[in-house]
Design brief:
alpha+beta, 2 domains, elongated, disordered C terminus
Length: 118
């Protein structure tokens, strides 16, 4: 799973991620003040570390929720889900991992229009 640079930055702001600004102060990152965080050798491509990007992706995956009327993961009737339940964070992830490879999980999240991230 991945996202656009803008989506990473928007979620970083939502998560109140702290970054060093141009004056060396550690403060919450905001997209509106992006120029203040781009200084020296820090540019858009390396503003977020790999670990921060992984944290953002994990946050988004954990917030994919089952919607009303969905009682299982499509194609896997033995994995029961309830409205509003995270399909990754809860115990269903273990079952989901048993059913799908990493590549299939990526395809599933991208291709499934039954679930949405909130």
């Amino acid at each position: 799973m991945t996202a656009s640079k803008l989506k990473f930055l928007e979620v970083a702001e939502y998560l109140e991620l702290k970054k060093l600004d141009s004056s060396g102060q550690l403060r919450e990152f905001t997209v509106g003040d992006l120029d203040n965080f781009l200084h020296g050798d820090i540019h858009l491509d390396n503003l977020l570390t790999t670990a921060e990007k992984q944290m953002i992706v994990m946050h988004e995956l954990e917030n994919i929720r089952a919607m009303f009327g969905e009682d299982c993961i499509p194609g896997y009737p033995s994995i029961v889900v309830f409205k509003g339940q995270s399909i990754c964070k809860d115990r269903s992830l273990g079952a989901l991992r048993r059913c799908l490879s990493v590549i299939n999980i990526q395809y599933f999240f991208v291709a499934s229009f039954q679930f949405k991230s909130i």
